[in-house]
Amino acid sequence: MRSILHVLPLTALLLIHASASPCKPQGTTITAQQILHVAPNSTTCASTPAITPGECATAAQAATALSTAFIKYTLTSKAKQAAVLGLITFESGEFKYNRNHYPGVPGQGTRNMQSPTFNIKYAALIAATRDQAKAVGDAPDAVLDLLITVPEYDFGSGAWFLTTQCKEPVRMALQSGSKSGWSAFIINCVGTDANNARREYWAKAVEALGA
């Protein structure tokens, strides 16, 4: 008896292959080399400060976690990806930190250094952390612990924040890839100063991603 695959037309075989392949949004993969252009100090964690055991991540680790986050939140715009990458690189000290140590705000962290309020919201929307976050909601450090122990959640906070907490006009302005759009994102959504240090990381991210 001949195999059914020997008699099916080519178009049918292609359809079978397509249906069996996982659906992945185009343009969501980021590489370690791209990240190293933005965060050249993330090659290794050999010189991690003693105050931050276990917090450091390399460019390779960041690339895997960020690609997962971009897929999860369907962040396909290079301009938006660059904004997220620039933000988390700056806020985490090129991935050396995922807690606020200076001045040390309890519960503030993940790679974009979200406030405890946003971390509680974020954890409540992740199926795997929802119940635990509710149980420890009065202990912001405990909520943060749930998020930073899983790279996907730790690095995914920036993409989550942009796609769910920033208003549509901010996201639309950011889509243009302009400096004014980036400034609006930092000032009107992140709620901080669009200073030169942050701008430099964003500019490198734009170059790295071709935004």
Structural summary, described in words:
There is one protein chain. This protein is an all-alpha fold. The protein has a domain at 30-44 and 53-116 and 150-209. The protein contains 12 helices and no strands. It has helices at residues 4-7, 10-20, 32-38, 59-72, 78-91, 116-124, 130-135, 140-148, 151-165, 168-175, 179-190, 196-209. It is globular. The model is unreliable at 1-22 (pLDDT under 50).
From the structure above, extract its key features.
single chain; 211 residues; mainly alpha; 12 helices; 0% strand
Q: Bin the helical content.
A: 55-70%
Number of strands: 0
Task: Give the class from helix and strand content and strand pairing.
Answer: mainly alpha
Q: Would you tell me the overall average pLDDT?
A: 88
Topology order in helix (H) and strand (E) letters: HHHHHHHHHHHH
Anisotropy-based shape: globular
Strand content: under 5%
Terminal CA distance reads 55 Å
Low-confidence stretches: 1-22
Quickly count the helices.
12
Describe the sheet with the most strands: none
The assembly state of the depicted protein chains is: single chain
Rg result: 20 Å
Protein name: Lysozyme-like domain-containing protein
Organism: Aspergillus pseudoustus
Signal peptide: 1-20
Keywords: Signal
Short description:
By secondary structure, the protein is mainly α. Helix content is 58%, strand content 0%.
How are the elements arranged and paired?
Layout: H1 4-7, H2 10-20, H3 32-38, H4 59-72, H5 78-91, H6 116-124, H7 130-135, H8 140-148, H9 151-165, H10 168-175, H11 179-190, H12 196-209
Helix pairs in contact: 3-4, 3-12, 4-9, 5-9, 5-12, 6-8, 10-11
